[in-house]
Design a protein that fits this description.
about 675 residues, 7-stranded mixed β-sheet, 27 helices, about 35% helix
């Protein structure tokens, strides 16, 4: 009997075989499975320009053809304030490319691509949508399984309609109670990031459930889902429910009359479409099965959440805004209500209300408040409601709809020694300006109150509480043994053996594997091989020989998205890497280059107990033997389960990577 959670059910709808055909119902999608997916939509933004040559390189010159012109969406949003000739030429090339191939395109100033995807129903409930941006999780706010991919994936989807995905462990978050007055979705996700902030949901899909969900508006859900990225998750999925259905019906008049709509928006919000969604929900197609399994479970009582502030410079540190004020006011220089996280009409209205309700007519002396709508449509709505003008009247500085300061681009960035408070999603050191600046995150209301007072504060009457969440861990992130032997494709070897090289560190980042100093030097493969791991352990090169198998710690390959951190090991002659867990981006880059990255937590844990005082790199005199059919590794007389390599993963490896696989597909078409 099939028993799936909501994440597994939605992925099941999009799983296909190597030629794009849906798999039979008997092949059940579960966490840990490596699958080929055909997403409903794929979004690229300014980085479309980098995907274009990858895509065209898959074809003979002049023969590039999209698998479907309806699947992609191009949205210009990151560097929209940049009016240099070079940037304008890039934007024009993307627009011309979209026009040539009939792809839906939004230009500079029309809005942040994630917001446009939601506004127009492109991120549709019950579907799987991917984007070459880490905040694709936001689509989960409307019951759409959104998750990030890398640029090579985007090119593959353009060409074939599909790419691959490993279905992650699924964490269930039960929301109970309801928010106090003045608390918002931003306070919910700030609380989760800090109180359950020890990588419990790293590389997981998060599924929100419980009676508290219905008390959150769709805008609040979008904020929470958006920042599940900072929480470490690959997905932040809210259920399809009556609140969402009502939101969709309320968008019908907008979709049929607004000048800011894009193709098919009216169809996506039509009575017929919504009725079908309701029928699917009633039939149980859009809700988890009773008894569905989860790797972890957490509970958050919304009534105990207070207006909170993250930082400085970390989302894992949070303090109630009132406590920050009471313990000694923190003076601010700049404030921001921008980004895909919190610059919708309801956010701008909440900020404006701070000023109208308090009677404050101007910003605090020396404070700059920057505002930018999530889209041109949002600005129109805020202007009609009067909130946009209210913010301008107190001295707010308007910016065009786009990412801007959130990604450290354009005017208004934090300068050396300054302190800022922002309604955005990230406050990493140096992200929004100078590395010596300090940045805090909060809701639009707290940001506005702080801009009015000149110090971090809140007008909310919500009571302070000591404990905001309770968490209980159940199950295991990965199945200990696969249920059935893996079928191996012709030409894929059944076994592999090599000397075990143990690199013990957790969070071994991409800079440790392949230094940033080499990233933009375009080294030849043999040169890349000689410098791999030099930042991690200078002794590595002397110890390792071609054919050795690396076993790392947990969260292997975290950090940047540079694919050289995978290819340099491949060029060094390492056949594959095993780790307790991987950064999902690293894993994507590895497989996309025909380099397998396999998880085996029990093997890593055993090596830790066997070599408690291991140096950074330890080469064993014993062989590690892998059996791909049995999905197991043998070492030191013991056997350990390894994540199985399904047929599609084998196809990619046999083809030398995703690009080779796509070329094979295209030549066979």
């Amino acid at each position: 009997m099939r028993c799936q959670n909501l994440v597994e059910k939605i992925v099941q709808r999009h799983v296909v075989d190597g030629v794009g055909k849906k798999l039979p119902e008997t092949e059940v999608t579960k966490s840990g499975k490596f699958v080929s997916i055909k997403p409903h939509r794929v979004m690229t933004h300014d980085n479309t320009a980098a995907v274009m040559p990858k895509f065209e390189g898959l074809f003979a010159k002049g023969d590039a053809k999209f698998h479907s012109s309806e699947q992609p969406f191009f949205g210009i949003d990151h560097d929209v304030q940049n009016k240099t000739e070079k940037n304008l030429a890039k934007y024009k090339s993307i627009k011309d490319f979209a026009s040539k191939h009939g792809i839906t395109f939004s230009g500079a100033g029309e809005g942040i691509a994630h917001q446009i995807m939601v506004e127009n129903g492109y991120a549709f409930p019950g579907t799987m949508v991917v984007a070459s941006d880490s905040h694709s999780n936001m689509y989960g706010g409307v019951g759409c399984l959104g998750t990030p991919v890398v640029r090579t994936d985007a090119a593959a989807i353009w060409a074939t309609g599909q790419t691959w995905w490993t279905v992650p462990p699924v964490t269930k978050v039960n929301l109970i109670g309801s928010l106090q007055e003045g608390c918002t979705g931003k306070d919910v996700i700030i609380t989760l990031c800090s109180e359950i902030g020890n990588d419990e949901v790293l590389n997981h899909a998060v599924e929100f459930s419980g009676p508290g969900v219905k008390t959150l508006s769709v805008d609040e859900r979008l904020t929470v889902a958006n920042m599940t990225t900072e929480w470490g998750a690959l997905v932040g999925l809210f259920p399809v429910d009556d609140v969402l259905i009502d939101w969709m019906r309320n968008r019908q008049s907008w979709a049929s009359s607004s000048k800011f709509t894009f193709p098919n928006a009216s169809l996506n919000f039509s009575d017929e479409t919504i009725s079908q969604l309701e029928a699917d929900l009633k039939a149980g197609l859009l809700s988890p099965d009773e008894g569905a399994s989860y790797s972890r479970e957490h509970t958050l009582d919304l009534s105990k959440v207070t207006p909170s502030v993250s930082g400085p410079n970390s989302v894992k540190i949070s303090t109630p805004a009132k406590k920050l004020f009471d313990e000694g006011p923190i003076k601010i220089n700049k404030a921001y209500i921008v980004s895909c996280t919190n610059s919708r009409a309801s956010d701008l209205a909440a900020a404006a209300k701070v000023f109208t309700s308090s009677g404050v007519k101007k910003l605090a002396p020396g404070v700059e408040l920057y505002i930018a709508p999530a889209s041109a449509s949002v600005q129109q709505e805020a202007e009609a409601a009067g909130s946009w003008q209210t913010l301008l009247d107190v001295g707010a500085i308007p910016l065009p709809a786009g990412c801007g300061p959130c990604v450290g681009l354009g005017v208004g960035l934090l300068e050396d020694g300054e302190v800022g408070i922002s309604a955005t999603n990230r406050n990493f050191k140096g992200r929004m300006g100078h590395p010596n600046a300090k940045c805090y995150l909060a809701s639009p209301a707290v940001v506005a109150a702080s801009a009015a007072a000149g110090v971090i504060t809140s007008q909310s009457p919500a009571a302070l509480t000591d404990s905001q969440s309770s968490a209980v861990v159940i199950g295991s992130p990965l199945p200990e043994t696969p249920k059935e032997p893996v079928s191996l494709l012709p030409g894929f070897q059944e076994t592999l053996s090599g000397a075990l090289v143990y690199c013990k560190e957790d969070n071994l980042n991409t800079d440790g594997i392949y230094a940033g100093a080499h990233t933009y030097s375009d080294l030849a493969p043999e040169q890349m091989a000689k410098v791999c791991m030099e930042n991690y352990d200078p002794q590595f090169q002397e110890m390792v020989t071609a054919g050795d198998i690396i076993v790392g710690g947990y969260n292997f390959g975290c950090g940047s998205s540079r694919e050289q951190a995978a290819t340099c090991l491949k060029f060094r002659g390492i056949p594959l890497v095993i780790a307790g867990s991987f950064s999902e981006t690293y894993k994507r880059n590895a497989f996309n280059n025909g380099f397998a990255a396999l998880e085996s937590p029990s093997l890593v844990d055993y090596l830790r107990s066997l070599f408690p005082d291991a140096p950074l790199t330890l080469k064993s005199d014993k062989q590690l033997e892998l059996n791909f059919r049995k999905s197991e590794a043998s070492f030191d007389g013991k056997t350990f389960p390894v994540a199985p390599l399904g047929p599609f993963a084998q196809e990619i490896c046999l083809a030398g990577g995703l690009e080779g696989w796509v070329k094979q597909r295209l030549s066979a078409a």
